Amino acid sequence: MSSAFEKLARPVQKWVRSKGWQELRQIQVDGIHAIRDSEADLIVSASTAGGKTEAVFLPLISQVLDAPSQSDGFDLVYIGPLKALITDQALRLGDICRQTDLPVYPWHGDVSGSVKARATKAPKGVLLITPESLEALFVRRGLDIPRLFGAVRAIVIDELHSVIDSERGVQMRSLLTRLEISLKRPIRRVGLSATLGDMKMASAYLRPDNAEAVKLIKAKGGEAELLLQVRGYVSGGEDETAPSSTDAVSEHLFKYLRGSDNLVFAGARQWVEIYADRLRNLCDNAHLPQEFYPHHASLAREHRDFVEKRLKNANLPTTVVCTSTLELGIDIGDVACVAQVGAPFSVAALRQRLGRSGRREGQPAILRQYAVEARLDSASSFVDQLRLGLIRAIAMIELLLEGWCEPPKPEALHLSTLVHQILSVIAERGGAQANRLYRILCKEGPFRQVKTELFLDVLRAMGRPEAGLIEQSSDGLLLLGPAGERIVEHYSFYAVFMTPEEFRLVADGKELGTLPVDNILTPGMMLIFSGRRWVVLDIYDLEKVILVKPATAGVPPLFGGDPGMIHDRVIKKMFEVLQGAFEPSYMDQTSLQLLREARASFARWGFSKTSIAELGAGAYVLATRSGTVKTTTLAMALGAFGFQCTQHDGFLLVESGDAEQTLDQALTGLAHAVIPDLFAHAPNLIFEKYHPFLTPELLKLDALSMRIDSECLQQLCSGISGK
């Protein structure tokens, strides 16, 4: 064994020998030296089953055994995003600690009260906990935090890539800061992660005040095998005897997924139900046991619990057709394959979903990507001609293979999560002064972009009678108000994230269905739904209703206007695919033919040389070559001038509508910094859990920090218009 082995405590060495290991992996050698030779924060990056857990816990447990703490409290804390992951890691660490007197305590919603009572009565050893359960400890046992965590030497954050700068990630950073403030000392932070797109940003997430000192250890090679295929399908084919594209996709899923555990991400809830129904019928027609089930937020909790428990049962093959509900935070165990019908909205989401597959050593990760495109005819939309759904899917996969994923946006305000943490700190302490809240959360915590006056505006919004979240005593102490008490007392408070809600689309008093909305819509914008084109009349954020009426006649694209936040880098890759000549080996013949058609259409429209194409009758296509934020901002600006806009990936369909000037005049004005009021048409600005408690002005500021880029307009319009 190497010199790293000699740095391990004797019981840990004995455990290593019992496993029959001839040598430690290089990442474990590096981790042992890094942890035993310094007190620095650390990020260990390797693929699933790459040895990350042992790389940090073998030396950390050795430290605890060689120099026991004289203080009360857990010695090590592991924070994991999934209950299943905590259960798995508790078994692994319990095995390592079996020959020691260090207990291992898993802690999440499914752990019995007796286990938690033992842990809190005499805290010691290793605590494995979810962010939500850690939040609950602060709220319920705030005064007990120093005793419970007084001996903590290190906090290990697993799946770091899945939380960076998300609402949940900001919550976790806040909890880490609050823990250090309670203990009056820093605690070593150790991040475990799959490949990260930007290690510098990961370091800044882990230790914002001293990112340069964070040590990075990255495994070389050893990546899990990835099996990948993109399959193309054409909707509306001329052969009436052939199965529909939906039936063809369902039959392929049935043939290759039956008999194992799988996840099928099908997009909106209506498609989840459609595919689940097709697959159920295929089981019935073949006289086979049922093993295909839907899962989305509109289904009853009892049904979702049943599906999740069945998915974890190794004796019952189960394939779940779902929205994003099974992407984050739910215990589902391992799956054999991840299928994606239609393109995802982010590489991070694709990585997160794919991470559900191939978690066990020697098991490949499998991704089946299904791309459904419309049959082309003389009336086909430019969107269908460019095959944007397929192109986005290819771009996402290429960026995934390159190891890139969306970076965090450091200037984001995260005001919804700030509201949550204000309530949490007040509940933890039974009350708090405004200046203390600001120091804990903004000055030292993750909300660094929130300055004093803005923080006070947030407090005022929370204290409004119609909000009722907080109130102030005569001595200035902030307390929970009636609404705040009700919210904090409910178990749902501990989770800061929520599943993206869907808006009901209503036309002339009739409900058309529901649509997930994750980016900004304003009255006057156009969208595609249920095979028709609609113009938005009004938006009711709190009621989750969008009023629409039929829009300009014409054949709407099969892929078009789907809400979702697409990064600039994804759009850039899409244009590289459209302008390129390479044909990926993971594509089947149908998808390759669709790709060739897209490239021919791109050249025919002239987008290699220009960014504006005229459709006639006052309609134009703008190639923004930009992601959702910039394209949305341009749509809002043109909407303020009276134009009607429909967004697509990297493109904007613009129609004259009520505009009093030409498109060229509007673009020229924007290029010369003549910027209208982007919020004049009352866009929807409520996207996160605590947004409803903020004022319109605060919602605008939050949107400007994350979803709108008013500073991009001048350069963007100069590039499009050439002026």
From TrEMBL:
PROSITE patterns: HELICASE_ATP_BIND_1 (PS51192), HELICASE_CTER (PS51194). The keyword Secreted does not apply. The keyword Plastid does not apply. InterPro entries: ATP-dep_Helicase, DEAD/DEAH_box_helicase_dom, Helicase_ATP-bd, Helicase_C-like, P-loop_NTPase. It comes from the Bacteria. Gene3D superfamilies: P-loop containing nucleotide triphosphate hydrolases. Residues 249-405 form the Helicase C-terminal domain. Residues 33-214 form the Helicase ATP-binding domain. SMART domains: DEXDc (SM00487), HELICc (SM00490). Keywords: ATP-binding, Helicase, Hydrolase, Nucleotide-binding. GO terms for molecular function: ATP binding; ATP hydrolysis activity; DNA binding; helicase activity. PANTHER family: ATP-DEPENDENT HELICASE LHR-RELATED, ATP-DEPENDENT HELICASE LHR-RELATED-RELATED. This is ATP-dependent helicase. It comes from Roseibium alexandrii. The lineage of its organism: Bacteria, Pseudomonadati, Pseudomonadota, Alphaproteobacteria, Hyphomicrobiales.
